[in-house]
Design brief:
Blueprint: H1 12-16, E1 21-27, E2 34-39, H2 46-52, E3 58-64, H3 67-81, E4 85-91, H4 100-112, E5 120-125, H5 127-139, E6 145-150, H6 153-159, E7 164-169, E8 172-179, E9 184-188, H7 197-214, H8 216-230, H9 234-254, H10 270-280, H11 287-304, H12 310-322, H13 334-342, E10 353-357, E11 363-367, H14 370-381
Parallel strand pairs: 2-9, 3-4, 3-5, 5-6, 6-9
Antiparallel strand pairs: 1-2, 7-8, 10-11
Helix pairs in contact: 4-5, 6-7, 6-9, 7-8, 7-9, 7-11, 8-9, 10-11, 10-13, 11-12, 11-14, 13-14
The chain binds nicotinamide-adenine-dinucleotide and glycine.
Length: 387
Amino acid sequence: MTPTAHPMLQDPKAAISIDGLRATVEVCLQDRTYPIWIGEGLLDQAQVWSTALKPGRQVVVVSNEVVMPLYGERLVGCLSELGHSVSQVVLADGEAHKDFSGLMQIFDHLMQARIDRSATLIALGGGVIGDMGGFAAACYQRGIDFVQVPTTLLSQVDSSVGGKTAINHPLGKNMIGAFYQPKAVVIDMTVLKTLPSRELSAGLAEVIKYGAILDAQFFDWLEQNMPALVAREPAALAYAIERSCQIKAQVVAADERESSGQRALLNFGHTFGHAIEAGLGFGVWLHGEAVGCGMAMAGLLSHKLGQLDAAALARLVRLIGQAGLPLQPPDWPASTYLEWMAHDKKASGGHIRYILLRGLGRSEFRPVEDQAVCQAIEAAQHGLALT
Ligand code: NAD
Ligand code: GLY
């Protein structure tokens, strides 16, 4: 098939004319190519929505009880003024609700409001809303358009980009889902002003991930700029979001369905992290907190396997700590981690595969003997912070 740009990108000047736009990153997937717009005040920018949506559409905004009162009115007001017929679904907040019953609430609304195939679903919220809204859009009438409006740092740098959509099953995270790309991602950095500090730190875990696995220069930049990021300085945040989206877009364009192993690298820290999340019960630790601690554990495993020197491991652990993330893994027997990790999607044929570092900025995906993993878990429990 001849590669063609998504219709909304056919006039590149359209994106450039958006007020408050700082950067545009493209996710290049032939006829499903889409833009990520990053800027300030984009949420209720008429130019954004007149570029992203065809006129006179049914639009369904899916959000939650925290984000909708903060930003819903501005978005819905802008869409209504542009002549769209807008309805909303407001879900309960939190990872614990990223489940089948939350998904059914979206479907109930879509059916009751007689939403048709030409409608667009807009997911306004963090990764939970983005993953659920995207999965609902993938399934409803076998697929309707959707746009991501991520409102947490984590969702802006990671979950809104790349088309992974899912809900959790009690036995495993994100186990029921689909690859389904949005038509656009609208990142309004100003919404981060209301984000709790713990959530900001959780997002920084995914930002650190990109530097650790693929971009040593970005890792250096993060070491120099972590205080500015924690202080939410707009210029620092803008660069961190743009660079993270660029890296994610490149990986997704190269391996959309995680078939060659490249995209699996984005799960650095997630094998241990998912075990922590599932083992404690979803929502006890934030996803990004579990990933942060999981990255330190995966770094320690890489060190024990002789492929990450002590100085590099110390830099990784220090940066994770500076981002305000926890470094003390739950005190379970190592075998409990292995049991939870066996449910992970990266486990294949009974073998758990790990993302390991080969120095900062280089990574690989492979199985490791259980014994080495258990030793690394126990060492991490004795004190990652002291590394
Ligand atoms: P989240 O969606 O639960 O949001 C975190 C909290 O912040 C919630 O209470 C939310 O209501 C609140 N919130 C959101 N925006 C806010 C704002 N601007 N101001 C104040 N409060 C705000 O969590 P998250 O960290 O954004 O996402 C985590 C989810 O993302 C997990 O389910 C994870 O599996 C998923 N994820 C998916 C991918 C992917 O590729 N699809 C990647 C990473 C993570
Ligand atoms: N967050 C991992 C991925 O999108 O592949």
